[in-house]
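tool_call: predict_structure(chain=1)
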Amino acid sequence: MEHITPIKEIDSIKDDFTIKVRIIHLWTQKSKFNAKETYSIEMILMDEEGRKIHAFRVKKWFPKFKRYLKEDSSIYVKKPNVAPNTLNFKFADPERKLNFYHDTTMKECENFSGSAHGFDFVDFNTIVSNNIMESKSFDIIGHIFEYGRMDTSEEDKSKHKMLLHLQDIEDTKLKVTLWGHNAYYMIEFLANNNSLAPVVVIVQFARVKFINGRPFSSTYFDVSRLFINNDIDEITSYKNKLVSENGQQLSSSGIKMIASKQNTEHDDFLKNHMFSNIDDLFEPLEEKTVIIVGTVKGIRQNIRWYYLACSNCYKSAKEKESSTDKVDGSHEMAEIVTYECSNPNCKNIKISVIPRFKIPLRVQDNTGTLTLTLFDQEAKKLFKYTAKELYDKNKKLGISLDLYPMELKVVVDKKLAIKIDITSYNVDNKSNIYGIARLTENANIIDELEKKNLNSQHDNSDSFIIGSSDIASQETKVVKDSFSHTGENLTPCARDNSTATSPTKLFSTPTELKRNLATCIDLDEMENLSTSKTPRLSPPDEQPIPRLVPKKEK
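tool_result:
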């Protein structure tokens, strides 16, 4: 038997060594240039001491290793290649990863004596008390007491998500978001499982983000692995403890669905808010939420497309300079750049920053063009890259960060339905600076909105119907006259019943009806109506207000 090298002793100086490992998780990585094409197979390996390392193989070596690479199988790997682990989020050895190439060989291992899954559990209290690193994965175990509906508002299924409320043995509660295939796995289980046992969940390789001091735990792309009531020692042991702590068996029927606070995309755009045109947003008169449909014509170049955000609360961070002693013992001062969060409620003492989208889009409909700011959350629906990825790329290539990256051009000429919140700031300051609260490219929703707008325009034009189909009939006469009553000049409209052969009707616009106004149309106006599809009416605020019938003098 040749010498087996433990993971902790792997060294990039050596290239001829053998490891004995178990594949505890395996997934595929898609190409950045073609989402339908697989670039590599990724895996997490664990040795008999329980240490883990990330390994991968690129597409051209698939046939050579295919028969050996199966999740939960054990293998010997000879002459893997060592590479640095440059990922920001670490889910295995933080320094190194392994690459399998043409010199690498494998064979099956039948006597692996280590753990089956290598769980590294963190208790819920450690997470909720902020005593865990954001940059490193962890494992959690708990039972479900509430769950949310699947959010499928994104077109990309990997961005579909659902929320779980978990509880541990000590009754500490934790919110966990499942993404993509893990969310669908959970939905399918809950739909088909009718057992009396509690639903115990293990999330392996989970991550946490702290926002305003609150932990938000989630699965991490395809890296995370989900176990639901599996017949494994860890879940069996948890159930036994749960029964002994509660004195009775818990039932899955006691799991409640979380009342949804997020409106569906359909309701948000088609039911809950009124449709508006861009020209209605130039001078906002009241606080409200509106929906518009517009086409992105471009991105403004004189405004930055990103902002540096506090990694804790995502509010903007300000750069400030400070100085410290140089470490070379010269007693000279070195200038260093630090950041200060603009949020006074942020409790993060050590500030780190991350670029996030703040893109000034020029959006146009048939009434005008307006700048709308696209922030990070909604930008994810339109772009393949994060703001940080584009920021780092441009910085590395020496491209000015004031110029927006070419990758953002994919948004130009897109037709979008956009939700906009008109705030008190907009009304008080007559400001037409708006952010995009929500957007969708859903063609069905956009079609419905455009039909509603078209029907609304037809309804308004139909309200201006005067007289019979032959509106210019010479048999219809309008008599103009003037009356004077207590100093008021009244200009009524009347019809000579002796000569008219068709009834004449006067309908008002909705605005005029509300104000209870009557509009007089004289003979010249009637001639205009006979040659124009759009009648010319007096302004609704015109004074004095005309009356159809003058009051009789007492």
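agent: The chain is about 20% helix and 30% strand. Proceeding to next step.
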